[in-house]
Amino acid sequence: MSVDNGRGAALVQLRAWLAQRELPGNSRLPPERELAEIVGVSRGDLRKALATLEADGLLWRHVGKGTFTGARPTTEIDSIAVIANQTSPAEVMRARLVLEPELAREAALHATADDIRAMRLCTDGGRAAETWRQYENWDNRLHRTIAEAGRNALLLSVFDTINAVRRTVVWGRLRNDQLLPPADHHSFGDHDAIVDAIENRDLSAAASLMRTHLQRVQANLIERHQSSQD
User: Fold this and answer.
1) Which of 49, 59, 182, 222 could form a disulfide with 53 if both were Cys (CB 3.0 to 4.6 A apart)?
2) Dihedrals φ, ψ of 64, to 5°?
3) What is the predicted pLDDT for the residue at 204?
4) For helices 132-149 and 186-199, what crossing angle results, to 10°?
C-alpha cells in the first residue's frame, strides 16, 4: 500500500469510527496509540488523518490534554485573538527564530522513522502544490511535524500558540502575483536539508539550518512588505 493510500484509508476509517459513535462536541478521543489500534491503522497515518479533520474544523487539539471532537472552544480562539491584536508579523518571526531552531534540534534527537516519513510526505506535497494555499498547508504541516517529533509537550504548546497567532497576523497578502511557488523556491531546498539533518541525528545542523531557513523567510517577507509600501 502506498503512503497516500494508507493516509486515505486511515481518514476513511477514522471518519467511520467517529460516525458510528456519534460523539457529542468536545468529547475527548482516546490517546493516539490506543486510537490507532482501535481504528486499525498505523500511528503515522492516524496523525495525518487527525490533522486533516482538524483543518476541516471537525476536531481540535490541546497539547497535554488530548484531541477533542467539534470546533475549538471560543475561549481558546479569543485568547489567540487577544495576542494577535498585540503583536505584529515581525514579532511573530522573531518568536519563531527563538523557538523553532531548538525544536529542530529536539527533533533530531527524538524523531522516529514514522516522523521522518511524515516530514518527507510534507516536503513532497509542498513541491507538488498547485496553489500557494496548498503549499502553505504543507509548509505548516511540516513545521508542526518537526515540532511534534521533539516529544516535548510544553514546547509544542508554545509552538501551537505562535503558529495560531501567525495564521491570524496574515503575511499572505504580501505574496507576489505568482499563482504557485516557483520551481526554484528557496524553501524546497531548505526543507530537504532540515529533514536530512534530523534524519542523520545532526542536532547542530538541524538547528542551524532551521534558523537560516527562517531568516530567509523573514528577509523575503520584509522585502515584499517594503515593496508594497512603494
Assistant:
1) 59
2) 90, -15
3) 98
4) 20
Encode pLDDT of 39-69 as tens digits.
Answer: 999 988 998 899 888 877 789 888 778 899 9
For residue 128, count CB atoms less than 10 angstroms from its CB and return exposed for 0-12, middle for 13-18, buried for 19 or more: exposed
- Could you tell me if 96 and 104 are in contact, meaning their C-beta atoms sit under 8 angstroms apart? no
Give the Cα separation of 24 and 30 in Å (integer): 14
Residues written for the chain: 230
Ramachandran bin of 57, using left for φ above 0, alpha for ψ from -120 to 50, beta for the remaining angles? left
Low-confidence spans in the chain with pLDDT less than 70: 1-7, 74-78, 170-178, 223-230
pTM for the whole thing? 0.68
